Amino acid sequence: MIHLEKLTKKFGALTAVDSLSLDVGEGEVFGFLGPNGAGKTTTVRMLTSLIGPTGGRATVNGLEIGRDDQAIRQTVGLLTETPGLYDRLSAEHNLTIFARLYGVRDAPGQVQKYLRMLGLWERRQDEAGSFSKGMRQKLALARALLHEPKVLFLDEPTGGLDPEAAKLVRDFIGELKTEGRTIFLCTHNLDEADRLCSRIGIFKTRLITVDTPANLRQKLYGRTVVFHVKQLLPEWVGAVRALPFVRSAEAADSRLVVGLDDPETHNPDILRQLVAAGADVQFVGELRHSLEDIYLQFIEKAGQP
Amino acid sequence: MNRIQTIVEKEWAEVFKNRIVLFTVAFLPILFTALPLIILYTTRGAVSAGDSTDIPPSFAKACGGITPGECLQIFLVNQFMILFMMMPLIIPIAIASYSIVGEKATRSLEPLLATPITTPELLAGKSLAAAVPAILATWLGFVVFVIGVPLVGGGPAIITSILSSVWLTAIFVVGPLMAVMAVNFAIMVSSRVNDPRAAEQISAVVVVPILGLMFGQIAGVIVLNVQLMMLTALVLAIIDVGLIYLGARLFQRETILTKWK
User: Fold this and answer.
1) Structure ipTM
2) pLDDT > 90: what percent of chain A?
3) DSSP letter assigned to residue A124
4) Rounded CA gap, B85 and B122, in Å?
5) Model confidence over A62-121: pLDDT tens digits?
6) Between 20 and 30 A from B16 (CA), which of A179, A241, B37, B132?
């Protein structure tokens, strides 16, 4: 659905996007993560034909950027980082303008549909300037969806929103995912990316890594199991560490933190070892490293010469 | 065409909620229409008394066989032709300045450019939205003025004068061309500044040549005639074509999106 081949953007001497190659499949929610100034918004602007690339090529929905720009803009939806609404106009009027610009056949019908879907119908006659941040974001999201685009570019959809509003927007994105839309999601909210995205790309001018969150965890940390033990003794830690399939074993208060590649196969062996040694094992659980840990590790490595 | 119409309607819906713009569009025509009528009303005594008046000789020669008092009134009223020519300059500047810079302030241009609208469509919509109200306000003001002249005691010679080809060319040909010039200039300026007041003030430089014309006429150095009007119209048409071309070339989506902060 989205294909990038060595896409590059330079602004004078500054390289904002350097040889970005990537594929996003149909129906995929792809998370595009990176620090401020990494070039994420520049990438989105190129893919939505707002600006042209300096080098490389990309296609969106089979359409080539730089050649089929108007057609691309007709078929994609964009939620910009700032909602950019017409504050003096009502919510309904804001959407009607864009419905007409996109050539939507049943503009009033589509406007009503998305206002209702996003819980804004009762406030449709109110000026957009009177809306809260969350409502403005929802209105901007409705604007991006009016023409039923197959591909959506969402730039920081929950940026600056309170937890309740962020959850509403996130849930709505989840619903879009079930409709089979292709979503290119730029976000700093790593928890959001972890929940919504099938794959994640970590980017800082260049693409650092692309994979599923689970694989990224595996690559960096392997898998980690925590055994909660009543009164953990040091010799038990050493005994587990000596097992051939254990990569690491550390004590953390009354928890034994064990790194291993195949917990499903080897957890019973560790459990038997501990019980035979006299340990009272209270809980066993897998430790899930946060996407934040993964992200920071990759960004730190990318910053090293 | 539908996208241009959408932009025009959007601009009108938004810009006219701005009190400053609304004041300019409404108040200016009223002022520029009322002033000459008041002048005519207050100088009607000079006409009936048949006073000998201090009129520039070049203008007095053009008066022909009418009375000096009537010639005085025509001379005074002709100064206000310039005001009717300033309306299609000042009003579009007020509208266009807020139109473009307003998009910068609210960061609404990016979602707009993300739609299938082309640059020519966008600029045409914004230009029409600024120029049409100015032209209509000028024409309406002129119609009110023509109706008002006999009501304030203006004689038939004055009516004949303001319905002459000079006046009609000024109002219905030169005026719209000036509006187009002002709009395109204001759009170019406001693409490069960050404050609507700055855009308005810089764009107001287009009024200077008209003021020169006004003072020249008062001093008797210039007498506005059909030939001068037609020449002005031709020059304006050439300038307008140039400004439209330049405006479209200078409206670079990438520069605007990446340089606007």
Assistant:
1) 0.82
2) 60
3) T
4) 27
5) 999 999 999 999 999 999 988 999 999 999 999 999 999 999 999 999 999 999 998 999
6) B37
Element spanning B85, H or E: helix B68-106
B14–chain A Cβ distance below 8 A for any pair: yes
> In which element (H, E) is residue A56 found?
strand A55-60
Number of folded domains in chain A? 2
Q: What is the pLDDT of residues A110-131, one digit of tens each?
A: 999 999 998 999 999 999 999 9
* A146 close contact with B: CB closer than 8 A: no
Could you list the beta-strand ranges (E) of A172-275.
182-186, 199-204, 206-211, 223-230, 246-252, 255-260
State whether B14 and A86 contact (CB < 8 Å): yes
Are A178 and A283 within one domain? no
A273 and A203 in a common domain = no
**Helices and strands per DSSP (H, E), number in chain B:** 14, 0
Tokens of residue A114, six digits: 């998305």
Domain boundaries, chain B: 2-259
- Sequence-separated (6 or more) residues with CB below 8 Å from residue B115: A73, A98, A101, A102
Report the distance separating Cα A294 and Cα A107, nearest Å. Answer: 44
Give the domain CATH number at A276. Answer: 3.30.70.100
**Could you tell me where the DSSP H helices lie in A13-132?**
40-47, 69-75, 91-101, 107-117
Across the range B86-105, mean pLDDT stands at 81
**What are the angstrom distances between the C-alpha of A55 and each of A18, A19, A61, A73, B229?**
9, 8, 20, 20, 53
Distance CA A15, CA A258 (A): 43
Say how far apart CA B100 and CA B126 lie, in whole Å: 8
Which of B6, B15, B110, B255 is most worth mutating to test chain A (most A CB atoms within 10 A of its CB)?
B110
Q: Which of A211, A241, A259 is the last residue of a domain?
A: A211
Confidence of residue A258 (pLDDT cuts 50, 70, 90): very high
Taking contacts as CB-CB distances below 8 angstroms, the residues of chain A near B10 are: 86, 89, 97
Distance CA A97, CA A178 (A): 28
d(CA A176, CA A195): 14
Residue A239, domain extent: 218-291
- The pTM for the full model equals 0.82
Q: How is residue B11 annotated by DSSP?
A: H
Interface residue A136 vs chain B (CB under 8 A): no
Strand order in the sheet with A151-155: A76-79, A151-155, A182-186, A29-33, A199-204, A206-211
Q: Which of A56 and B51 is assigned the larger pLDDT?
A: A56
